[in-house]
Amino acid sequence: MGVALAELTIRAQRYRARHPGQGIDRAWLLRFAGKLTDRGELLDDYRCYIMGCGQRNKRRDHIVIHVGAHVDQRRFSCSECSQRFLRKNECKRHEATHTGARPHHCEECGRTYVRKDLLKRHVKRIHGLEKGTRGAGPYRKKARTG
């Protein structure tokens, strides 16, 4: 059970030719994901039926988005530029980069960031600190292990 990526691409091109100007339908994408193994045995997780792809997920909607990625199904587009995204939250996160606002700042060195996750990565990598309750400010030295 499975379909080659090249075959999926051809099927997606046919679908788009029959439905110009529309995204690929969710029901169509669901045909390429499910809870069966190659031998037809039932799985606990959903899996991608594209040959060579081992992607699995407990949530059906996540695996459908994944299958859409195989055929470049990016439904969400940035309102400022032409970049397109698989998920709405990815698009919104990207759109925030266009505002110029940098609301997240490092209390150690003052650098500012567009997103909180980028500040957290900076603090961990550059200062070797993690969010906590001890030490100066809201950060503390990471405990050494080993």
UniProtKB/TrEMBL annotation:
PROSITE patterns associated with the record: ZINC_FINGER_C2H2_1 (PS00028), ZINC_FINGER_C2H2_2 (PS50157)
Keyword Metal-binding set for record: yes
Claim: Iron is one of the keywords in the record: no
Name assigned to this protein: C2H2-type domain-containing protein
Organism, scientific name: Rhizopogon vinicolor AM-OR11-026
Alphabetized GO MF terms: zinc ion binding
UniProt keyword list: Metal-binding, Zinc, Zinc-finger
Domain of life according to the entry: Eukaryota
InterPro entries, alphabetized: Znf_C2H2_sf, Znf_C2H2_type
Span of domain C2H2-type: 46-75, 76-103, 104-132
